[in-house]
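Hi U.,

Before I forget, here's the chain from the pilot set. I'm dumping it here mostly so it's searchable later in email.
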Amino acid sequence: MRATDLENLRPHLTSVCRTVTAASVALSGSLSRGEARIAGGRVLSDLDLIPVVAAPEDAALARKQLAPVLQELADRYTITCTAALTLEEKFLRVRHAGYVTSMATQPFVWDPLGVRHRLEAREDTTARPADVLPWLAQPVTYYLAKAGAAAPEENLAKAARAARRLLEAAGLRPDAPGLLTEHTPDHPSLTGDARRRIAEACLRAVRDVAAAHGLTLLPSSREFLARTGSPHHAEGTRETFHAVRDRAFLENQGLPFGLSAMTARPTA
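Structure:
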């Protein structure tokens, strides 16, 4: 995607999504916030959509309707386009989930189900640390698990950034001794020992925050901690990632990964 395409992205999304009747479609991620990564006039971020369905039985039709839409977007913009189908009840309830907090104030580009009006009608309540912090810990353990399955440097970088956000929100110093002071793993040349230290620091951040606030972590984070056990295995394995990913999708989307996740890449 060219940076110049961003101005007309939302109008085009609205236009191309009009064939989708089984889901309302929201834009998420950095493109939703206007914070896309850009280099050399090209957008490096993925195009992330959250199609919201009323019930699990609507997911199959929504996927059928969305598949050509995602492919059209991937080909038009030469970009990876992802979608995570989400139950409306879950979307309205998990207000501290990362995919929700990453959205713009008005995220819906197409809303045949009227989800936006129900979202606006929700009564806001004051968030407590016990409500928010487990959701901030979730991406730390998710990306630690993913680092053991694919692209370790990239996913450790994401885990480290999430750990810093978690520590800051918990009132703990991100630059405290041993906690993410020297590592921003955004390049592919990390040694195995450096990767291990980063993973250990991220894992320690989760445990320190949980202990300091007496948190009950989300099931996906508990799954990761139970499977890793020793800090020396803080990155997990492919099997660990699949188990953590499946729990995270149920927490976030209310649907299994296989029914929720969709990806389209530009046609070669």
